[in-house]
């Protein structure tokens, strides 16, 4: 009832050309609202300078999404600290996207375009909409607007079709059954593109006939499916492609005493993470730069002294951690993070995978990369000794 009144007042303000305020959620109304609406929520505090800086953008985003399937709301953690604690809020502002009451933390740039990309990715992973309510969907409809964002990570098996095509109509129920059976396959997206409404997108991918089925990995076309369009044939094709694309960890020669238990006994300055310690090692209010490698990898061996130098640079800074993972001993951990080559360097912010580093592997380049990321998010104060903010 409270939410209904708020929305009613908001509509009155809209028709009288008065700007609508962002929906304020509290302990009294948040649970039911998040169950019924797909909602971006900003958790903030009045005294937080980053929150004040972000406020105009959040209001603009709210106005853009009026009468839309996506709701924009906020929670004042100064007034409701227990509510924010229940949602694991430890820094401000924290932004989460809630789908059917379950929240995913957003850790990207505080720009409307980036928020929209994150929203599209999460919707593609799990939901579509019916009357504004999120429901499970096995097949994602792709357009020129969302194609790159949604297919950029993981595997995608995509049908390019035309509604009038007879072969497409025959394939449709088979593809739907395929999606139903493989809906819980980790890292797999099954999708369609309607070439009558997405002509430029289909031309870009050189679609000459319908249906055309293409296999993508991390946003890149890898293969065109030319086998039988029967269910079991397509299922075997997907399983084989995913198996072939998995990282090969068996190339390493046997390494003596490399169990996780023995590795955790190394020097505390080593910053070695394992499956047991990884979550704790990256899930904190700060940045973790993680080197996923293997002892037998020559590029990893070359990087090792530079990585040690970088770790020493930040050894006294609790908010910036330089860590590594041995993928020969923590194979499942590396597979879970999609590691397919060594070394792979990933920067985590507040426990979320943020940026994969692909620059030069010298000290200056990696240090400048870290500085640029902190400056981008307004966290450059973490670089100062003891996090002291110096006033001129």
Architecture overview:
- The chain is an alpha/beta fold and 392 residues long.
- The protein folds into three domains: 23-121, Glutaredoxin (3-Layer(aba) Sandwich); 128-245, 3-Layer(aba) Sandwich (Glutaredoxin); 272-376, Glutaredoxin (3-Layer(aba) Sandwich), CATH 3.40.30.10.
- The protein has helices at residues 2-15, 30-36, 49-64, 81-86, 112-126, 147-151, 166-181, 199-204, 231-245, 260-263, 278-282, 298-313, 331-336, 363-376, and strands at residues 23-24, 38-44, 70-76, 94-99, 102-106, 127-130, 133-136, 140-141, 155-161, 188-194, 212-217, 220-224, 272-273, 287-293, 320-326, 344-349, 352-357.
- The chain has a five-stranded mixed β-sheet with strand order 1-3-2-4-5, sandwiched between helices.
- Strand 16 and strand 17 form a beta hairpin.
- Residues 4-148, 240-375 form the Thioredoxin domain.
Secondary structure category: alpha/beta
CATH 4th-level superfamily of the largest domain: Glutaredoxin
Shape: globular
- Give the CATH topology of the largest domain: Glutaredoxin
Task: Assign a percent range to the helix content.
Answer: 25-40%
Order of strands in the sheet with the most strands?
1-3-2-4-5
Oligomer: single chain
Structural features:
392 residues, alpha/beta, Glutaredoxin, 3 domains, 5-stranded mixed β-sheet, 14 helices, 17 strands, globular, disordered N terminus, disordered C terminus
């Amino acid at each position: 009832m409270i939410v209904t009144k708020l929305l009613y007042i908001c509509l009155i303000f809209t028709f009288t050309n008065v700007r609508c305020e962002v929906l304020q959620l509290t302990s009294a109304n948040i649970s039911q609202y998040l169950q019924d609406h797909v909602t971006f929520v900003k958790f903030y505090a009045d005294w937080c300078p980053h929150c004040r800086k972000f406020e105009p953008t959040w209001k603009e985003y709210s106005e853009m999404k009026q009468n839309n399937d996506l709701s924009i709301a906020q929670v004042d953690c100064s007034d409701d600290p227990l509510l924010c604690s229940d949602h694991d809020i430890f820094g401000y502002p924290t932004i989460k996207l809630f789908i059917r009451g379950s929240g995913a933390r957003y850790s990207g740039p505080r720009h409307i375009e980036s928020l929209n990309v994150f929203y599209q990715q999460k919707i593609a992973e799990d939901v579509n909409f019916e009357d504004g309510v999120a429901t499970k969907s096995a097949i994602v409809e792709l357009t020129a607007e969302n194609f790159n964002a949604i297919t950029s990570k993981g595997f995608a098996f995509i049908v390019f079709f035309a509604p009038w095509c007879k072969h497409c109509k025959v394939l449709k129920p088979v593809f739907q059954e395929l999606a139903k059976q493989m809906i819980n396959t980790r890292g797999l997206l099954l999708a369609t593109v309607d070439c009558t409404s997405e002509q430029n997108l289909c031309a870009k991918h050189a679609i000459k006939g319908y249906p055309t089925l293409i296999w993508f990995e991390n946003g890149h076309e890898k293969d065109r499916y030319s086998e039988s369009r029967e269910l079991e044939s397509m299922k075997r094709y997907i399983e084989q492609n995913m198996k072939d694309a998995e990282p090969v960890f068996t190339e390493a020669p046997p390494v003596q005493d490399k169990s996780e238990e023995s590795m955790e006994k190394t020097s505390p300055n080593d910053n070695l993470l394992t499956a047991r310690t990884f979550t704790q090692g990256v899930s904190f209010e700060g940045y973790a730069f993680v080197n996923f490698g293997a002892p037998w990898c020559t590029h990893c061996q070359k990087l090792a002294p530079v990585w040690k130098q970088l770790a020493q640079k930040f050894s006294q800074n609790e908010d910036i951690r330089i860590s590594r993972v041995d993928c020969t001993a923590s194979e499942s951990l590396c597979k879970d993070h999609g590691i397919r080559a060594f070394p792979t360097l990933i920067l985590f912010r507040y426990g979320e995978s943020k940026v994969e580093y692909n620059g030069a592997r010298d000290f200056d380049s990696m240090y400048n990369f870290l500085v640029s990321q902190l400056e981008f998010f307004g966290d450059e104060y973490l670089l100062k000794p003891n996090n002291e903010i110096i006033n001129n």
